[in-house]
Amino acid sequence: MIQALFDYQREIYIAVAQHLKSFAANGSWLALLAVLPMGVMFGAAHAITPGHSKTLLAAYITGSRVRLSRGLLASLALSFTHITLAVLIAVLALPLVSIALGSVGRAPALETLSRGLLGLVGVWMIWRALRGRHHHHAREGEVVGVMAGLIPCPLTLFVMTFAIARGVPWAGLAFAVAMMAGVAITLGMVVALAVLFRRGSVAILERFGSSTARLATLLEVATGLILIGAALHQVLGV
To answer: Which residues contact 211 (CB under 8 A, 6 or more apart)?
Structure first.
């Protein structure tokens, strides 16, 4: 299945390149607008492939008490940061891309920064849970989303680089916005499923006599350990 996703992702790259090449040749904005819905589909499909911090986002939503609305804001923050960072790299630092990226489609330094910050969030969540304080700051979810999104989107970076090379950077930006919407849709579904899983798990365990406070503590500690584990795996390779 993973190989099928990668094959599909390769087809997405080829299709996007063809559309941008066609726009560069005829300059028809109507033609570009007609394929922007496809950009949304590309973004949604691309977000299904490995990466995009889906697992860590789902773990955070499951282990915290954030409501669905707050979880969706976190997914929007992740999507916006994930896409915008790639656009900024392409627009402002294109000559340095080969230096900033350790391999095609990856940015090891930014990955390390993202996972390291999330590891600190994990430590904070465990400390807060063990102290019996489950109060969440108003913007905590959005901050986690920004941290998780610090890894630039490789598809957006490809689109922007290709568009700039063809002399149509605005077309690349339009595609990037469309793909951001698609990524947000996929991550929003991840958040909704995580919230449903949390509610279902709490309801089932409460039937066996477990208290809500104890369940909240266990879920928050488990989430903290997952975030710390992801950070150690990225930073130390353990």
So the answer is: none
How far is residue 215's CA from residue 118's CA, in Å, rounded to a whole number? 22
DSSP codes joined into one string, 134-185? ----TTHHHHHHHHHTTSPPHHHHHHHHHHHHTT-HHHHHHHHHHHHHHHHH
Cβ atoms 49, 4 nearer than 8 A: no
Backbone angles phi, psi at 106, to 5 degrees: -130, 150
**For 209, left (φ over 0), alpha (ψ -120 to 50), or beta?**
left
Answer with the residue of higher pLDDT: 180 or 51. Answer: 180
| Long-range pairs, 186-190, Cβ under 8 A, ≥24 | 186/43, 186/44, 186/47, 186/48, 186/52, 186/54, 187/47, 187/52, 187/54, 187/57, 187/75, 187/78, 187/79, 188/72, 188/75, 188/76, 190/54, 190/57, 190/58, 190/75
Digit-coded pLDDT (tens) for 100-134:
444 445 566 677 777 788 888 888 888 877 776 65
The first and second tokens of residue 83, run together, are: 């896409």
Residue-wise pLDDT tens digits, 209-224: 665 666 677 778 888 8
Q: Give the whole-angstrom CA distance, residue 177 versus residue 27.
A: 19
Question: Facing residues of 135 across strands?
Answer: none
The pTM for the full model equals: 0.78
